Amino acid sequence: MSWIYLILAGLLEIVWAFSMKQSAGFTRLTPSIITLVAMIASFWLLAVAMRSIPLGTAYVIWTGIGAIGAFIVGIVFLSEAVTPMRLVAAGMIVCGLLLLSLTKQ
């Protein structure tokens, strides 16, 4: 169950990162509220997951999901650049996440 909480926390990190971008520096109310609610929920789920997942593993997986998710959202919804170097960098993050998730706890 802890891994499910951790994945949900990572997905919420994507939500709050995107909403923060849409908030235009917290000048737009609705995206600002979404950002804050998603942040609180993401941190809470991360804390719950860390009850049984080691800190280093949980934090790296959480930030990795957020980083890769935000990278994909930026490309798909915000027309951010897709360059070979960015793709290689994202691929390396994914490889690190997979290796870390396969280690014994």
From TrEMBL:
GO terms for biological process: xenobiotic detoxification by transmembrane export across the plasma membrane. The chain crosses the membrane at residues 33-50, 57-78, 84-102. InterPro entries: EmrE-like (IPR037185), Small_drug/metabolite_transptr (IPR000390), Small_multidrug_res (IPR045324). SUPFAM superfamilies: Multidrug resistance efflux transporter EmrE. The keyword Cell membrane applies. Its main location: membrane. One of its GO terms (cellular component) is plasma membrane. It comes from the Bacteria. Belongs to the drug/metabolite transporter (DMT) superfamily. Small multidrug resistance (SMR) (TC 2.A.7.1) family. Gdx/SugE subfamily. PANTHER family: GUANIDINIUM EXPORTER, SMR FAMILY PROTON-DEPENDENT DRUG EFFLUX TRANSPORTER SUGE. This is Guanidinium exporter. It comes from Idiomarina fontislapidosi.
